[in-house]
Design goal:
Elements (H helix, E strand, L loop, with lengths): L12 H10 L13 E6 L2 E3 L9 E7 L5 E4 L6 E5 L5 E5 L6 E9 L2 E11 L6 E8 L2 E3 L5 E7 L16 E4 L2 E2 L7 E2 L6 E7 L5 E8 L7 E2 L5 E6 L1
Parallel strand pairs: 2-8, 9-17, 10-18
Antiparallel strand pairs: 1-3, 3-6, 4-7, 5-6, 7-8, 9-11, 11-15, 12-13, 12-16, 14-15, 16-18
Length: 231
Amino acid sequence: MTAHHRRPRPPGLAFLTLAITACGGGLPTPSSLVPTATIFSGQVENGTNANPLPTTVTIVGTNLQGATLDFGGEGPGTALNINAAGTVLTVVAPPNLPGRRPVIVRTPYGKVNAGVYTFRQPTPRPIVYLLTAYPTSGPATGGTTVTLAFDGNLTYNPADPPGFTLPDVYFGAVQATGVTAPVQMPGGLERYTITAVAPPGTGFVDITLKCPVASCYTFSTTDSVPYQYVP
């Protein structure tokens, strides 16, 4: 009768078997599937609960397929889109209360904090009034650099997006070029100047300032200063 000898169990195998059993028989998630995520753009939301201005937030990372989001308890956002490679995610931030929130990205293989998103409700802006233009006339061919003084602060909120402080300047119905950043007048409190290059034109026109985006400062809708084109 041939004797059968049981092969010795390798050290540590019993512990591994117990560990797998204790975890319900599943294997740990491979590190290659665990998501990574970082907010790439859109950290600032300039809106209110009553009138939110949706900001599209872009998150870059890896293994983002099937992801869901949570803006720190404010909701998941809308219009979620993830590219096929799972490396770029875009979402429109939800309506909000002011403050900073973590953006948590969750996938079937884990979750990660993509960064901090700032919900803001800016203080109502003062009305901006155009006061003077100098010089008050120039050649019909245009090209004159005109200094415009106005009352009101176009750098009112440091959370404004890039380019927010530059208004559009119009000579009649024609937009000027070369608009410079606002400069505060000495001792002028909330009085500032900008310069703009007059376009070609004829006769008398009104110089007006207009807001280039829907959410920025408020200009007086009846305020203007005259400018004369000289033949």
